[in-house]
Design brief:
The protein is mostly helical. The chain has one domain: 3-Layer(bab) Sandwich (minor pseudopilin epsh fold), CATH 3.55.40. The protein is about 45% helix and about 10% strand. It has eight helices and three strands, in the order αααααβββααα. It has a three-stranded antiparallel β-sheet. Strand 1 and strand 2 form a beta hairpin. The radius of gyration is 16 Å and the shape is globular. It starts with 20 loop residues before the first helix and ends with a helix. The model has no long low-confidence stretch (mean pLDDT about 95). It binds manganese (III) ion (MN3).
Length: about 200
């Protein structure tokens, strides 16, 4: 069974004005599609064919650049679309809200730390909120299409929120103003989806 490009859970223009429709069209239809096809090429005929993307990444040979880049790209973008929503924004509640309070002291402190991690990731990469077994949450940033599921990368644990800070994610609308894009991302975060991931992986 080959991996397939997952459909966007909303229309291309649904996240405007925070993320523009043209960026979403190219990002999903070209970039994520490319990672998906190249992931399938990278595992074709190998023992990884038929495994889940999580199992592939957790057991990854970090020297396998094609699988590292494209497996990461497939997983990271799939998560990214799902943690955004046109009805997003606000703050998390429930157990995730409590875990964020405990780790960072307040939602505002969390937002500052996450935004800083995303803004200071040099070049292309991602910033993450991850949950460890036991329920504590951590922030980290990773280069390129790496993510904390991969051996020895970032804070470890399960990524439950991620922001893509490659220029292709924001350049059409924000040019070099990465901090403005990061701030806008907070207006579309789907905290219900992030909470579901927290509860599934805590
Ligand atoms: Mn991207």
């Amino acid at each position: 069974m080959a991996f397939e490009l997952p459909p966007l859970p909303y229309a291309h223009d649904a996240l405007e004005p925070h993320i523009d429709a043209r960026t979403m069209e190219i990002h999903h239809g070209k970039h994520h599609n490319g990672y998906t096809n190249n992931l399938n090429n990278a595992i074709a005929g190998s023992s990884q064919e038929g495994e889940s993307i999580e199992a592939i990444l957790e057991n990854l040979d970090m020297n396998n650049k094609a699988l590292r880049n494209n497996g990461g790209g497939y997983f990271n973008h799939r998560l990214f679309w799902n943690v955004m929503s046109p009805n997003g924004g606000g703050e998390p509640s429930g157990e995730l809200g409590a875990a964020i309070q405990k780790a960072f002291g307040s939602f505002e402190n969390f937002k500052d730390s996450f935004s800083k991690a995303a803004a200071t990731q040099f070049g292309s990469g991602w910033a993450w909120l991850c949950v460890q077994k036991g329920g504590t949450v951590d922030i980290c940033a990773t280069a390129n299409q790496d993510n904390p599921l991969m051996p020895g990368i970032g804070c470890g644990g399960a990524p439950i929120l991620g922001i893509d800070v490659w220029e292709h994610a924001y350049y059409l609308n924000y040019q070099n103003r990465r901090p403005d894009y990061i701030n806008a991302f907070f207006s579309v975060i789907n905290w219900e989806a992030v909470s579901e991931l927290y509860n599934a992986h805590k």
